[in-house]
Amino acid sequence: MRNLWNFIIQYHVILLFCVLQFFALSWYVTRNGYPRGKWVKRTLEWQGSWNEQITKWTRLNELAELNQELLAENASLRAELFAANQRSPSTIQSAEVVRFTWSNNANYFIINQGIEEGIAIGQGVSHEGIALGRIAEVSDHYALGVPIINGEVEWSVRIGKDGPVGRLSWDGTDITIASLHDIPKSTAFSPGDSIFTSGFQGFFPKGMLIGRVDDSEPYFDGQFLQIPILLAGDFRSMNYVKVLIGNELEQYQSLIPNSDSSRK
């Protein structure tokens, strides 16, 4: 309070001038039609511009909320579709990816859903029916996942719906290409054939798309084929995902010793 009083005493002349100037301008504007019109127009322009910006911000917030509602509704519809077509998790939880890496060997992602939303270690993560990864760690409201493009994790997949099962791994270079191992040389396949999850690991139900056989020539190590796989997931634009939640996966995982740390 003392500082304010000292300020007023020190600058009382300037403050008095500003007050008198304000009253003078107010009197001038209200007494003269033309200046008042210009004043009103300028005020209207400023206020209109400001309100327009406020409206845009409000609409952006509304669109964000609407997007979340649409994601939740889409997740619910997909859960019903999965349940109608095959044995699968009973619930799908939508989530936003808040961080994702693709330039390391051990890539990871973080989503804004956690224990409070039903997320648990070992649950599969997908987008538009494509397998993308699994949950590795979880906190109250966030979860850390490992994607297909993580060189320290292998995935159980098969060629086609009923073809041979092999191991899918990523070599840390091209985020669009992985390798399928342990496929017998006698296996019949062609470029473009779909690669699906086997359902053996418990992260995903059987039959989720994970990629397609690439046009590149397979490598034969003397016993098995190593087949290049073009991954179906677009990891660079991984903004929203769905986490597979359900009693079937939980019961499956409970039967596997040390399932949380399983690499295969």
Explain what the structure shows:
The protein is an alpha+beta fold. It has a domain at 88-261: Beta Barrel (Thrombin, subunit H), CATH 2.40.10. 34% of the residues lie in helices and 28% in strands. It contains four helices and 13 strands. The chain has helices at residues 2-10, 12-31, 33-85, 247-254; strands spanning 91-100, 109-111, 124-127, 130-138, 143-147, 155-159, 165-169, 177-184, 194-197, 209-213, 219-220, 224-231, 240-245. A six-stranded antiparallel barrel has the order 1-2-5-4-3-13. It has a six-stranded antiparallel barrel with strand order 6-7-8-12-10-9. Helix 2 packs across helix 3. The radius of gyration is 30 Å and the shape is elongated. The termini are far apart.
The tally of beta strands, per DSSP, is 13
Radius of gyration: 30 Å
* CATH topology title of the domain at 88-261: Thrombin, subunit H
- Report strand order across the widest sheet: 1-2-5-4-3-13
Just name the CATH architecture of the domain at 88-261. Answer: Beta Barrel
| Structural class designation | alpha+beta
CATH superfamily of the domain at 88-261: Rod shape-determining protein MreC, domain 1
Query: What is the number of helices?
Result: 4
From the N-terminal CA to the C-terminal CA, the straight-line distance is 70 Å
Q: What's the overall average pLDDT, rounded? A: 77
Q: Low-confidence parts lasting 5 or more residues at pLDDT below 50?
A: 259-264
Note the run of SSEs as H and E: HHHEEEEEEEEEEEEEH
